[in-house]
Amino acid sequence: MPALAQKRPRPGDKGPATRDKLRKSLLKWYDREGRDLPWRLRQGRPDPYRVWLSEIMLQQTTVAAVAPYFTRFLERWPDVGALAAAPRDDVLGAWAGLGYYSRARNLHAAAQKMAVNGVPQSEAAWRELPGVGPYTAAAIAAISFDGATNVVDGNVERVIARLRAVDTPLPHAKRELRALAGELVTVDRPGDWAQALMDLGATVCTPRSPRCETCPWANDCAAYASGAPETYPRRAAKAERPRRYGAVFRIERDGELWLVRRPDKGLLGGMAALPTTEWRDKKWTRAEALKHAPVAGAWKKAGAVEHVFTHFALTLDVYKAEIAPPNDGWWGDVSALPTVFKKAAKAGEKRS
């Protein structure tokens, strides 16, 4: 929390700062303090392929985590055509560790569409591609094509909520915050404007302990004037993350595991996996779980693993057996598995 001895005079005494004043001060700050990122060009028009790739990777992932993945992706697939021609399993494998694999599947599908139809330029055209939502489409259109779009992500919501001291809690405030952000957009340097807002939220107007003393908008920020900027944006009480349960089955031969392919639709869609039951709200008894084993046999309990997804926590009981597998799968190694199944594979090793 910033060191504020007392409540500051509200900038609202003279009315909210004008759009031109806010834009001038933020763009001046961005020219001086903007981040150097692997996918960002400070001069010239950024490559839309690089911008698109970075924006998909950055969904629910930090810049520090994304940077090495971004570099490796570009080395293997330097343009849309190369990515479109890559086997999907290679793309999914390279994505391991970046979160939901549906994003990688959509990335590959979108690349294939662009390889045929060309790279879109407008916000609306980007929205037609798999995995490209309102924020991503607006960001690419602004950064790569100078579109005067309203680019609003979590960082921008936080900045605007503090600038205007919006008391409506998230997520209910999203429409209001988007409208307020849109009032600041012009045709002048739209790409730089979008990135400046993102950088301000990521480096100065941070969720906790905002560095208000270095903020170009400090004198115009209603939340800073209140003396408690870190309390914005307001948030509705979070519901407790639900828990689900399942059982997973480990068959090993000469250091390899029997793997299956998960359905394309749904969580971890299209990924390699260990055979598993469905994941449900109720715990599985041993008898229930073994009815769903890939093949009958002398299954032994080898432990349990915990994994947390964005929307739920998961407990998986791990069963192992020395047994001939069914036909619908293949032998592979643990490197092909997403994290939750790597944990299950490791749990099975402990009692080998």
From TrEMBL:
Cofactor binding, per record: Binds 1 [4Fe-4S] cluster.
**HhH-GPD domain: which residues?**
57-203
Q: Which GO terms describe its biological process?
A: base-excision repair; mismatch repair
Region of interest (Disordered), ranges: 1-20
| Cofactor(s) recorded in Swiss-Prot or TrEMBL | [4Fe-4S] cluster
Enzyme class, spelled out: hydrolase
Keywords (alphabetical) are: 4Fe-4S, DNA damage, DNA repair, Glycosidase, Hydrolase, Iron, Iron-sulfur, Metal-binding
Q: What does this protein do?
A: Adenine glycosylase active on G-A mispairs. MutY also corrects error-prone DNA synthesis past GO lesions which are due to the oxidatively damaged form of guanine: 7,8-dihydro-8-oxoguanine (8-oxo-dGTP).
Record protein name field: Adenine DNA glycosylase
Q: Which organism is it from?
A: Candidatus Viadribacter manganicus
